[in-house]
Structure prediction request, 767 residues.
Amino acid sequence: MKLKRISKYIATPAGTFTTLLTFLFVLVFLQFFVTEIVIVSLYKTRTEQFSGPDEPKSKRHRSAKNFLPDGTIHLVYVPDEYRYADEVYRKEQIFDANHNLLWQGLHKDNPYKYLSWPGWSHGFTANSMKETRMITPEFSQALEIPFYSQQRKIEQIWRYAPDMDIFVGYRFKAGIIGYAGSTGFTKLKDKARPFGRFENFYAWCPTDSFSPTLLWQTNRCIYQINFEKQRVDLLSQDHKDPIGRIRTHMWGDFTSDQFHISKKYRPIIHINKKYRPIIHYSTKDGKHHLIMREPQQKLSITVPEDWKADSVSFTATQKDIFLRRQGSDTKFSDTSPRFSKQWMDSWRDYCSKPHKRWVELYKVDNQGNLELLNRFDWISPARPVSSTLTPRLQIKGYVTGASPLAYDLAWSSFGDKLYGLAHSGHGISGAYASIIERYRPGNSIFNWILTVGMMGFAFWHGLSRRTCWGKFIFWLVLVGLFNLPGLLTYLALNHTAVIKCSACGRRRGLEKLDCVRCGAKLPLPQRRELDLIFKT
Amino acid sequence: MRFLALLKKEFRECLPWLLIAAIAFLVLGGLALRLMIQSGSTFSYPYRLPPGSAISTFRLTVHSPLITTGVWLFFISIVLGLALGIRQFFLPHFSRTWGFTIHRSINKLTILCAKLFVAAIAFIISLGIVWMVIYWYASLPEILPFPPEPRLFMEGWILIAMGFTVYLGTALAGLNKARWYTTKVFPLAFVLVIIVTTVSQWKLSTAFAVMLIGSLILLSQIIHTFLNREF
Prediction:
């Protein structure tokens, strides 16, 4: 009997949780399908409302702003019909800052050699690492760096062990041969020191090797790992605070940064040896750090506090170091929850106005001082928010009518955290966060009306069936918090037949012996004349 | 003695499923591994690394040669969970033998424990031991060029545990008196949520924790329903 009672106290909440969770998922499925079906049926071709491509303002905005090493700026405009064309056949027009045409022709014949800048390469991030380690039916994947012999045969692999933050080396059919950690390569596991929390890595094959070399970024350091020569070089200093995402330019000893571009292009995009290999990263204190080769040099640059870290990039030629900064004079700021109606209205308002934008080029000296070489200002024309967003938002208002109010409560309490999770690609927690972000009702009146209606229905249904007031109030609150899934859970777990009370004539449930209205007991069956036992 | 007798009865009923699962996994999982070895795909990397080129970093992540074996393990584990759950909790309902099972001079909890214990043992014997044998074979130095990660061994056990969770979900669905198109199938839907949550984990400890919490939620309901239901 004791176990029966204990099991009741655990099993009842467990059953409620299971049922509620299932209904929540069913609702999300329905909301997703309804939204997508309606979006597809309502889809209209996106209408671009940019000013005509021939207008100088629009051209100026849509042109690439390229600098020559002497600081001169050129606007490189690619007509719409060539925007997605193969680089070999792409036609370009080059204008000066006053919009005078300087040159036009095929990209490959461009006579100007502009400064090239490091691009944002995502590389293989900590999130990518987590994704490869997911416990799927196919098992998790491992990060393995093969080491090839000169005969192009794999002799060793170096497998990353995320739980230890080191590499473990295996020789072909011969088991473990060593370990690689922050202090270098060793044969003993005890001597291998962890690299630290993994953040990012890039890989390339040096010109004299078939085996990859890695640029390995942890949360505080940057290493270069050469498995062939069994060398681990600490490139950066060991920072106390986490370091930002690194950007590289010509760092790897290879002919092209762009592995996905076929060989026929490589001579065209090949950047000549006038550039020094460079790694750029920033730290929390607002400093930008450069690690350069040919010759070896490390430089820390302090920039004004209001410069955003991702608006700044560096490049280094054999002669000079340059800094490019891009920005806008107006910033979009709205404190209301992202993608809420207010937020979308402010976003539309922001987009509908033209904004002043600019790009600056600085020369950096060996002490890290900046000298402004050139600045170019232009106006970015007003642009419409994608027309597909509007029907989505309209549908969202109806579809999220049945969404739980609890989503809104969670969003208002942990909105920033949930937004970060939803957009970080963090497996299942990110998926659950994005469900809340996408399907939260956003304080819509329709949702409030439905919630009140469902609470009213639960009140009407539960009043005659209640067994105690505590339970009754709990279910009302649950229905209020979870809307349709809450109501369905309530009905699934509480629906019982009702009878007419013999005393007061009103409806009463059968779960309780006393009538909830008048307190009368359940009627006992009356003795009948044919009851032989009592008669004798 | 009565408990042992119950165990024997349950074991006898589950034996065919247990044997089918063990043989199926041994044959299919083992064959998948042998085919991987024979085809040489465990050795040749599917890419070339020409000198002087950048490498797409995602190409350096590789699946284990046990990839197909894992898929079979997952699939057979789920099927075994369903089969045992149906055999132990649905079939007595259809064959009307619940009354015979329950109305003995032994308490209900002992009967339930016997069922759950046998199911757990069935998973360990039919899939766990075979998985251990296959993993041990794959780890032999002369079989694969590079041994599989030790972590994969634990991942295999997580896949087996998923099957056991399916068994618990099926058991609860079987005990639930609701109609099949209403909340009767909800435990299975809940199991689906547990499985999806588990396969999205990258830490073994978190994956085990998710499975454990999910199983405890189901188990508490199974005990409560079994003890309170009128058969």
